[in-house]
């Protein structure tokens, strides 16, 4: 069965129930929103995607595959998170970072300190916070790309 | 809020599974040891507050942004 979201951003969007990703603890600041969907442009290979709330038509984020600009990125998953998303195979793990897009798009940042980790086989996900100095909440994506180039 | 007076080395418990021990008291801070079940997330409050703030600030408000534009912005700098 399909879910209909009346998205403020995209208008009416049909989401197959099998594509709904469950966040048992919600996202930080949005603890009540437990269901999201990843939306992308069909047929286009793009490291960016939308992460849209199912139960609030106004809540939509841009997310990015962080390895595109930080090949060395290594989020430290803890046992409780692995248990929460019911991950049993490492290859099912998918990591995404929420992107902050200011007025000047070139200054967009990615949150590598609290990535979203998804069990892509079971569509269960969680946002974690890493308590270390290595990553920050706002990495300038274009700067990171230039560093690796 | 419950206020408890403790000295270095003393501890208190919350429920059956959580123990908080004062390890060291210094003029600029207190070192605390926490024993709790692994499935409990323990975070410095300011970190949690910032994670919430950053998420709230990242909600897309402009309908003009497209994924294709974002990808092109990346490409221009490669």
Order of helices and strands of chain A: EEEEEEHEEEEEH
**What would the average pLDDT of chain B be, to the nearest integer?**
91
Widest sheet: strand ordering of chain B? 1-2-3
Mean pLDDT of chain A: 92
Structural class of chain B: alpha+beta
Radius of gyration of chain B: 22 Å
Give the domain tally of chain A. Answer: 1
Terminal residue distance of chain B: 54 Å
**Share of residues in strands of chain B:** 25-35%
Described by strand count, sense and barrel closure, the largest sheet of chain B is: 3 strands, antiparallel
| Overall CATH architecture of chain A | Roll
**Gyration radius of chain A, in Å:** 15 Å
Flag low-confidence runs of chain B.
none
- Protein structure class of chain A: mainly beta
Q: How many helix segments of chain B?
A: 2
Overall geometric form of chain A: globular
CATH superfamily of chain A: BH3618-like
Largest sheet of chain A: 9 strands, antiparallel
Alpha-carbon distance between the two ends of chain A: 45 Å
Helix content of chain B: 25-40%
Structure notes:
The complex is a heterodimer of chains A (149) and B (78). By secondary structure, chain A is mainly β. Chain A has one domain: Roll (BH3618-like). Chain A is built from two helices and eleven strands. Chain A has helices spanning 79-84, 141-148, and strands at residues 2-7, 11-16, 21-22, 35-39, 48-53, 60-64, 93-100, 109-110, 116-119, 124-127, 139-140. In chain A, strands 3, 4, 5, 6, 7, 8, 9, 10 and 11 form a nine-stranded antiparallel β-sheet that branches. The relative contact order of chain A is 0.17. Chain B has one domain. In chain B, 29% of the residues lie in helices and 26% in strands. In chain B, strands 1-2-3 form a three-stranded antiparallel β-sheet, with no helix packed on it. The longest helix of chain B is centred in the middle third of the chain and has 13 residues, at 45-57. The N and C termini of chain B lie far apart (54 Å). Chain A binds chain B through residues 8-9, 27-30, 40-41, 44, 46-50, 58-62, 68-69, 78-80, 83-84, 98-101, 105-106, 108, 111, 113-114, 127, 129, 131, 137-138, 141-142, 145-146, 149, and chain B through 38-41, 43-44, 47-48, 50-60, 62-63, 65, 67-71, 73-74, 77-78.
């Amino acid at each position: 069965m399909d879910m209909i979201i009346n998205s403020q951003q995209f208008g009416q969007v049909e989401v197959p129930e099998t594509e709904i990703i469950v966040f048992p603890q919600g996202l930080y600041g949005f603890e009540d929103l437990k269901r999201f969907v990843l939306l992308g442009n069909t047929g286009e290979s793009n490291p960016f995607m939308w992460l849209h709330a199912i139960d609030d038509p106004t809540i939509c984020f841009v997310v990015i595959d962080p390895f595109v600009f930080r090949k060395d990125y290594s989020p430290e998953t803890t046992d409780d998170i692995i248990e929460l998303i019911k991950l049993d195979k490492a290859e099912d793990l998918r990591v995404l970072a929420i992107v902050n897009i200011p007025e000047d798009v070139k200054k967009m940042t990615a949150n590598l300190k609290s990535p979203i980790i998804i069990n892509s086989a079971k569509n269960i996900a969680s946002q974690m916070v890493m308590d270390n100095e290595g990553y920050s909440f706002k990495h300038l994506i274009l700067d990171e790309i230039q560093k690796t180039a | 809020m419950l206020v408890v007076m403790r000295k270095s080395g003393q501890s208190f418990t919350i429920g059956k599974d959580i123990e908080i021990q004062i390890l060291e008291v210094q003029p600029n801070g207190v070192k605390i040891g926490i024993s709790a079940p692994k499935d409990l997330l323990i975070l410095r409050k300011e970190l949690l507050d910032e994670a919430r703030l950053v998420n709230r600030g990242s909600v897309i408000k402009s309908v003009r942004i497209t994924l294709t534009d974002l990808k092109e912005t990346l490409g221009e700098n490669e």
